[in-house]
Amino acid sequence: MAEIVLRRGEGAERQRSLVTPEGVDLSLKLADAGQRVSAFLIDLMAMLAMLIGMAILLFVLLLLLVRFGQPAIEAILIVALLGFFLLRNFYFILLEMGPRAATFGKRAVGLRVVARSGERLTADRVIVRNMVREIEFYLPVSFLLYNEAESGSDVALTLAGIVWTGLFLLFPLFNKDRMRVGDLLAGTWVISAPRRNLSIDMFQPAPAAPALAEPEPAAQFSDAQLDVYGVFELQTLEQVLREGRYDKVATVADAIRAKIGWEGGDDFAFLRAYYDAARARMERGLLFGKRRADKHDR
Amino acid sequence: MTARGDSRRFRAAREGEWRRLEDILNQAEKRSVRKLSDEDLLALPILYRGALSSLSVARETSLDHELVTYLESLCSRAYFFVYGVRTSASKRLGDFFKSDWPAAVRGLWRETLASLLLTFIGALTGYLLVLGDPSWFGSFVPEGLAGDRDFGASTERLRSTLYDSPGFLSTFATYLFTHNSQVSIFAFALGFAFGIPTVLLLLYNGLTLGAFIALFSSRGLGMELGGWLIIHGTTEIFAIVLAGAAGFRIGWSVVFPGDRTRLAAATEGGRAAALVMGGVIVMLLTAGLLEGFGRQLINSDGTRYAIGLTMLFLWCVYFYLPRRPANG
Questions:
Q1: Residue B235: which of B192, B158, B288, B189 has the closest Cα?
Q2: Does ipTM exceed 0.85?
Q3: How would residue B182 be classed by pLDDT, with cut points 50, 70 and 90?
Q4: Same domain for A82 and A166?
Q5: CA distances (Å), origin A82, targets A76, A79, A85, A151
Q6: Paired strand residues for A221
Q7: Does residue A22 share a domain with residue A158?
Q8: CA of B61 vs chain A CAs: smallest distance (Å)
Q9: Has residue A104 been placed in a domain?
Q10: Interchain CB distance below 8 Å, B85 and A198
Q11: Which of B66, B172, B204, B251 fits a 20 to 30 Å CA distance from A64?
């Protein structure tokens, strides 16, 4: 069960509580560095795609309109300059001001921007966090590119640019809330809030395989056998059952059989039966105020 | 066997409401709030509270991990929607120009004065240094900006740069606008480094200005350069001064947070400054238009001065004229 046990306490240090006015803690989960980076890369791709699309469109327009002379060319140049400016400065701002509070990249990864205080995300916050991006990313990058193109490579300047970018890029890793400098000034943070679907409850006889659930499970296990595990193990078991991968099911079934001294039976049916019985017992325990976090919790 | 049924019955009884809430949220997030039917809109807060209470119950009584994470995700989506922004974009924009922006600018008056003073000091220094020793000119004015306007150029050539228009008028205006916006965004964003880069940027901006004035006035073209600068300069320099002020606000709150934590102070300063910055972009757009079209099409010094001073007057009235507070 080693590979599954690794999930224990996953992201506990990224959990942040947000208590709604109704008094319920939503316990938000902060996005980790990997998610932030992938979202940003997707956004860069999206912007690049838009730039290329715009360039092609304008080029076609240019070919069509070139016979109208200077005014037409000028108009196209203006559209290009303004388009680039708007894309660079307002792609993030406009998308994050929308109801999803996320750019395309953030949506793809399942992130959204949230005010740290839990208030609504106002325009000024979105503007700050994205205008600071200008010095975090665009300034050193355009500086480096310009420097390369202009004077070959000046080692000291290039190094300074890399250090500068690195300082801002790594900033989120050095605070526990994974904030960019922009987040810090805007009072925002980025949470991971992927849409989740509700599939079937594992806690019922599987309709597809009624034959497997055939032994009346609760009667089969003794209380001592059901009390071996806690909530954490039960939910790990739930995940194994949902994934339904044969190798994992077999490993887990063997581990549990060895632990409770059980023998025989189809792996999957055994696990389903054990899950049902253990969950019924633990949920009854919950009603009486007994909650065992995991198997070490006595 | 009753316990076995309880958490399943709980889910079966509430699932319909959760699904409905999810559908409404999907619709609202994909399109707009206005597309929701009245019925859905009225049901939303009730469904939201229902889902919250389901979450509380599920956390205490159900061990279905998927159910709890599903409800957490659903509830936070609903929370951010229910307590999120509901005003339309046009209403928000209207409020911004009617009250928010001028109020934010008024709130930064100290920083604005400091920033103006720095620009002025820079200009004066640049002027005096270049007058004393023209070789300073090259160090204050980047080559790209100077073009062939330097101490080697003839007076006639200098005069012609003030009145002749470059070929691509409107493209030039657009270029100026995007360039200046980028510079002022830097002045703002760099403010968090204790405002030091902002000071340097403002001083440098002033130095360039002073150097130009020194060059042209040494040829007796001071009055004419004034007209060339003022037509857009009152708007543009005002905008850059405001951007600098916004940067100072952030720097100041980082260095002197008062009785708040440094983080809270930086956040508060940053938000006040951001409002100003949104408007600065608009000012720079105006300046770009004035520079690109106004200056190139109007060659009379008198008209140039009139337009420039009128713009300054209008901006000052707009920002600083006391007004009745909004109702409530």
A1: B288
A2: no
A3: confident
A4: yes
A5: 10, 5, 5, 28
A6: none
A7: yes
A8: 6
A9: yes
A10: no
A11: B172
